[in-house]
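Molecular record:
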Amino acid sequence: MSNTIPIPGLRIGPLAQKKEVSEEMDCGIAELCEYKCLILPDPPDEITAGGIVKAREAMRLEALKTCKATFIMRSDNAFRDWGGYIPEPGDRVYVAIASGMIHTGPDGREYRIVNDKDVIGKLAE
């Protein structure tokens, strides 16, 4: 677990120990409130299948529709009433389209803060 982000109040299960969240990730958020989760959406492709470079605005809008993401952290209350799978840091997950708010971390990455119910399920990758 030497390459994981220490997150105060975050319960780390055995599944999370198999996953790694890079120390290079600096989201700038120490803790989340209520039922919130922090995810890092997959970046959209910069070039289309036909070889055309996408405009910056088109990439920004496409990023809002991204459904695949890496789960980074959750609040203590997130998934409290959940039955079944609970995401752990490093898990690859599906999230609802255009959910949450965008947060640009000190590392320059665009994270999304979403509700726990916006995390739809785990990706089989």
Observations:
- The chain has one domain: 14-122.
